[in-house]
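chain below, 161 aa
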Amino acid sequence: MSNTWTEEVKAALAPKGRTLVITLGSILRADDGVGPYVCANVKFSRHDLRLLDAGTTPESIAQTAIDWKPEKIIIIDAAHFEGVAGEVRVIPLEAINQHAVISTHSFPLSVTFSIVKEDTGAEIVVVGVQAKSLDYQEGLSPEVERTAFELAAYFNRIGNL
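prediction:
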């Protein structure tokens, strides 16, 4: 794990039983592509870990998440919390619409994941990566790409133990 991650971030990223990692974002909006980058670079071999890329429509994977019955759901998305580009923070689910890059999501994230939480009883954590740019362009900024690489490396380590 990155030594810049807080204890809160480390705890949020730690799996618990059946753990589902959901990535969000658009590769066409610069740093909003942090989620798809992580998803494309992670492979789990453990049966108690699963990875889904919801892109810009998390409601489209809600039923899949409910049916899998995870104990924990980790959501990875670009966010704006006035941090330093590439910084990682845990965002409370009830505050996600204030911090997440919701302009790229077609339905409020808090509503979608509140339904998933109600139907599964899963612990849901949102891990936001401070975006530097959300311009209409492909590719992550160097700061966000470094964080995305660290997240992917972390998930690959735990997902193949």
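Residues 18 and 48 are 5 Å apart (CA to CA). The first strand starts at residue 19 and ends at 24.
thats it, cya
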